[in-house]
Amino acid sequence: MTVEVKFFASLKERLGCDGAKVEIGEVATAADVWLQATGGKSLPSNVLVAINMEYTDAAQAVKDGDEVAFFPPVTGGRW
Amino acid sequence: MRVELRSGAFQPWAELAEYERAAQLGTGVGATATFVGTMRDYNEGEPVLGMYLEHYPGMAERELSALVAAEVARFQLIDALVVHRVGALAPGDPIVLVAVWSGHRREGFEGCRAIMEALKARAPFWKRERTVGGERWVEKNTAGY
Question: How far apart are CA B43 and CA B80, in angstroms?
Fold first, then answer.
């Protein structure tokens, strides 16, 4: 199956790309998608995961056509 | 209820007046509570020259709409308006307007605050500050009160 991967903010900068289409086996979690998309880098513990724009966790299964996003903690800092 | 992202500067008090005129909220409103967040020119002891607010297009609107709807229901608010900037900002620029209308002041104050805190905790925005020493991501969501 194919999923659309997106990276944001400092994570995008660290990885040097804002995402990719990723081919992965029929049974896969968001964590598997991360490994595939980053060439095996370990998933930082503070990274947030969203599938189809809804917060979830890395153990969540993905489906063909899903949009899987990884990003650092959201922040407005102090107003 | 309206939730909106803006890529250009906005004037919160003009937005508020215009929304009130258009929404015709009626005479059941006993309280209007508002919060305006503006960009400061310092952070963590250092002057800040400017800021870029990155967002996740689609998810930011979706999260904001969902969290505002949840707080409107929880505090039985009559209506709510949120306008949030994205993109390049300068010190003094308004970043966010949260306005709520309610029957009484308690729901107003608490509902406005709850929307703001939920926004800070959940909405996918990231700040990149420009300082004299270079640019840096703000990755600590410190308590602002």
Answer: 30
